[in-house]
Amino acid sequence: GQRFFLPRLNPDGEGETISIERDPEEGQESEESLEGETAGETQESQGTAETQESQTEPPQTTAPEESESPSGEEWNETLQEMVDNAVAEELNGSWDSISLAWYQRVSEIYRSISHGLVTVSSVTQDTDWFNNPVSSADQSSGAVIYMTDAEVLILADYDAVQDAEALTVTFNGGSTVEARVKKTDSITGIAIISVSLGAVPQEVLDSTQTLVLGNSYQMSSGAPVIAAGSPTGFSGSVVTGLVSYVQTNTVGTDTAFQLLYADISVSEDGGGFLFNTNGEIVGILTDDYGDEMA
């Protein structure tokens, strides 16, 4: 066994040495235990350090995926949307509100001119293959342009009245009276027919409006126009459009006039008049000079 010496003071103040024996195996176990505890503390310290290092490591980042470039069509759509939004903001409204305001204006104009539009019915006589007489009836639109003390003057389509054996005019109030051709112009395609003032009931006269003849030479390309009368083939119909082209100084026989091309769809048996946004007549619908002309 090993011997350990411990100093001790006796009551007399003199030093005294005491020896203590210890078992070697017990000391070895203590040393091993001490070494084990030290190793455990070392491993724990290393683990703690590794944990701290792992916590302080910056997070891994992945490179963003490259997005596909928009196609030319997508760019055009985006650009058009930006332009529309900018224009709508500039006008302090959306396209829907602008369109609604225009259609409301068209409705107001038509209400103001409808009492000056009439239906002209004509009856013509012809013969068939066996030389038998045949009657045919046709309807077109007319516009009341003037009233005198004796008659009502109505602007009409020359082709609809030129060979008529009988003419009648139906006013907006529903009253139908006989009419006669007073003046025609085959070059411009217009005619003036008249109705006796005494033949028209007073209540119909009171509700009939005289329409204003506007200046077609003030019309330009892009101007909004309204076709009213029977442009779709039905009396009382109305369509809208724009002046596509203005052909000035169209030369005819001993005359010159102006043609307005409009993007208005007119049926084959349709007719009527072209109005500006003030409700003034600026043309008469005809296909004599090509499709969609006034």
Note the topology:
Elements: E1 2-9, E2 15-22, H1 24-56, H2 72-90, H3 95-113, E3 117-127, E4 133-147, E5 151-157, H4 158-161, E6 166-170, E7 176-185, E8 190-196, H5 202-207, E9 224-230, E10 237-252, E11 255-262, E12 271-275, E13 281-284
Antiparallel strand pairs: 1-2, 3-4, 3-6, 4-5, 5-8, 6-7, 7-8, 9-10, 9-12, 10-11, 12-13
Protein model, in words:
The protein is an alpha+beta fold and 294 residues long. A hairpin with a 5-residue loop joins strand 3 (117-127) and strand 4. It has helices at residues 24-56, 72-90, 95-113, 158-161, 202-207, and strands at 2-9, 15-22, 117-127, 133-147, 151-157, 166-170, 176-185, 190-196, 224-230, 237-252, 255-262, 271-275, 281-284. The chain is globular. It has a 6-stranded antiparallel beta barrel. A 5-stranded antiparallel sheet has the order 11-10-9-12-13, with no helix packed on it. The N and C termini lie far apart (136 Å). The protein has 5 helices and 13 strands.
Give the beta-strand count.
Answer: 13
Biggest sheet overview: 6 strands, antiparallel, barrel
User: On the 0-100 scale, what is the average pLDDT?
Assistant: 77
End-to-end separation: 136 Å
Strand content: 35-45%
SSE order, one letter for each helix or strand: EEHHHEEEHEEEHEEEEE
The number of helical runs is 5
Strand order of the largest sheet: 3-4-5-8-7-6
Taking Cα atoms only, what radius of gyration do you get, to the nearest Å? 52 Å
Low-confidence parts lasting 5 or more residues at pLDDT below 50?
none
Shape: globular
Structural class of the helices, strands and pairings? alpha+beta
Roughly how much helix do the residues carry, as a percent range? 25-40%
